[in-house]
Design brief:
By secondary structure, the protein is of the alpha/beta class. The protein is built from nine helices and eight strands. Helix 7 crosses helix 8. It starts with 7 loop residues before the first strand and ends in a 12-residue tail after the last helix. Bound molecules: S-adenosylmethionine (SAM).
Amino acid sequence: MTPLAENQVVLGDCRKVLETFPEESISCCITDPPYNYEFIGRQWDHAEITRRMERIKDSSTLVKNIPYGSGLAGGVRNKRWYERNRENIVDYQAWCLEWGQSVFRVCKPGAVVAVFSSTRSFAHVQVALEEAGFYARDCLVYRRHSGIPKGLNLTKKLKKLGHKDAAEWQGWHSCLRCEWEAIAVLQKPLQNNYVETIEKSGLGPFKAINRDGSFQSNILEGFSKAPDESFDAHCTIKPLGLIRKLIDLFVPSAGHHVILDPFAGSGTTLVAAYQQGHPYVGIEIEKAYLPLIKKRLAEAKSGRLFPVFGDAG
Ligand SMILES: C[S@@+](CC[C@H](N)C(=O)[O-])C[C@H]1O[C@@H](n2cnc3c(N)ncnc32)[C@H](O)[C@@H]1O
């Protein structure tokens, strides 16, 4: 197998593309796959998402930017709904296992895979990656303070129906405000122990002591997006400072460590890797995002200082 071509972004389905990468060539994978909101029938089906969003755009009750099929965009949570939803999440987990196995093969012993997921899908991602061969190390909380309450406002619904008990249900909703995202942290088994693993791959432990001497918590907060990391650039863009922090936690600055993002999106992980002095490889299935990734990387390489909010520690 030919050596890994570093500092590149490959267009395609990561499950296929990863097959062409050499075994044990990656030191860390930081990624943000689709959360199963827009996930339909084991495909990242852009046309289908657009069609469903179009269908709900005039609805006054459904959450506008979360397409039907997500389990969040509406639907009565009855037995029939649950059965359909269950099928969907089981498919999602099987899909995570597929890419998880491909990532496992290319990771070095002791490499960390850090995967963003929603509070609902986190368990499935973790179990799939464990099945792929990684072992669970932690679940980091990325606290983002911006969750909009979604779901049904019961009193409003009952009032609309003219229900006699509407007032009694004041303050009751179908869910809580979600203001954190999970980051599943798993690790490829060590080469016997930490000492042998750092000798073989230069990996294994976490950088737990911060610059100010504090011991790093597994709650990450205070990271916000710069003005150009907006929804318009890519609908699920992550704060650059947050990704840089993850790299600092899991990848030693000494040594040659390639960082992988198989779901590159707008290329945040790749830009962060570059800025932290590491080679990177990204994979993205949507051709339309490649110019954005290339633009952000070119700006980073031209020395543009991205405003990074929350580079604490
Ligand atoms: C949640 S976004 C990642 C956003 C990224 N964290 C950022 O800051 O821009 C997930 C990305 O994965 C891509 N994707 C979905 N399925 C894929 C697959 N099988 N292979 C490669 N990319 C895929 C989507 O097109 C989307 O851009």
